[in-house]
Design goal:
The chain is an alpha+beta fold and 249 residues long. The protein has a single domain, classed as Lambda Exonuclease, Chain A (Alpha-Beta Complex), CATH 3.90.320. The protein has nine helices and nine strands. The strands form three sheets. A five-stranded mixed sheet has the order 1-6-7-8-9. Strands 2-3 form a two-stranded antiparallel sheet. Helix 3 crosses helix 6. It is flat and about 70 Å long. 20% of the residues are buried. About 7% of the residues have low confidence.
Length: 249
């Protein structure tokens, strides 16, 4: 009984945070910025909602700050990827991370050995893939890492890999769904779906046309006041405000 009482007393005791933990949390929150990317699309930031993509292209969307738990999750995902990169180096795999190529005059031009973001101009898409592995035949493989407990390939991850494949010209690779708790890494083999990417790029050109002509895109049918997207949309209130109805004002 004495042991149980002592355990209950410890459980009920309100412990203060260590001084170093407060510093760690402050460090996480320093990166708590949802930076807009005006004038371009990012493969990792494409939404299914054309209206949200238009806001991001204009750089006017007012995203809320992430919670501390979300920032910890992001940090854990980056750390897991860095661990795997270290393992790849230890076993002698060649890789490029991050890489970058600029699309100019109809061809890809590498800006330096391990450059920064790839881009295309029609539509204006720019981004940096996670890892490019190089095998013994000098063939490049595009690898995108996702820190998630989901083992299925969601539409978002599929789209991101496909866009990076088009930007880089690399036509083989994987999406790795990295479970941060078990390190289970079932890689999902990927090949380009050119028809899908062509339609996606046309969709982006349509959004750019709306931006140039200051034509507002209608709200998605799934985003009514009692619909599914209201709960998951970070900019629902902005979208339904006066500013959201005419972001050029």
């Amino acid at each position: 009984m004495a042991i149980r009482a002592a355990a209950q007393k410890i459980k009920e005791k309100k412990e203060e945070k260590p001084w170093w933990l407060e510093k760690v949390e402050a460090h996480f929150m320093e990166d708590n910025k949802n930076y807009p990317s005006p004038g371009r699309f990012r493969p990792s930031g494409i939404s299914e909602c054309a209206r949200e993509c238009l806001y991001c292209y204009l750089g006017v969307a007012e995203y809320p700050d992430h919670e501390l738990s979300t920032m910890r999750y992001f940090a854990r995902g980056r750390a897991n990827q860095e661990i795997w990169e270290g393992i790849f180096r230890e076993i002698g795999l060649r890789m490029r991370t991050p890489c970058s190529v600029c699309y100019k005059a109809g061809k890809y031009v590498c800006t330096h050995e391990y450059p920064q973001p790839w881009s295309m101009t029609d539509p204006n898409v720019r981004g940096t893939p996670d890892i490019i592995l190089v095998d013994d035949t000098n063939t490049e493989w595009l690898v995108e890492w996702k820190s998630t407990w989901k083992t299925r390939l969601t539409r978002e991850y599929h789209l991101q890999w496909q866009l990076y494949s088009r930007l880089t010209g690399i036509r083989q690779g994987w999406v790795v769904t990295q479970d941060p708790s078990t390190w289970a890494t079932p890689p999902i083999a990927m090949t380009p779906n050119d028809e899908f990417v062509d339609k996606m790029l046309d969709w982006m050109r349509f959004i750019e046309k709306c931006v140039r002509e200051e034509v507002m895109i209608a709200k998605d049918d799934r985003c009514g006041p009692n619909k599914l997207w209201k709960e998951s949309c970070d900019i629902y209130e902005f979208c339904h405000s006066d500013k959201g109805s005419n972001p050029w004002r």
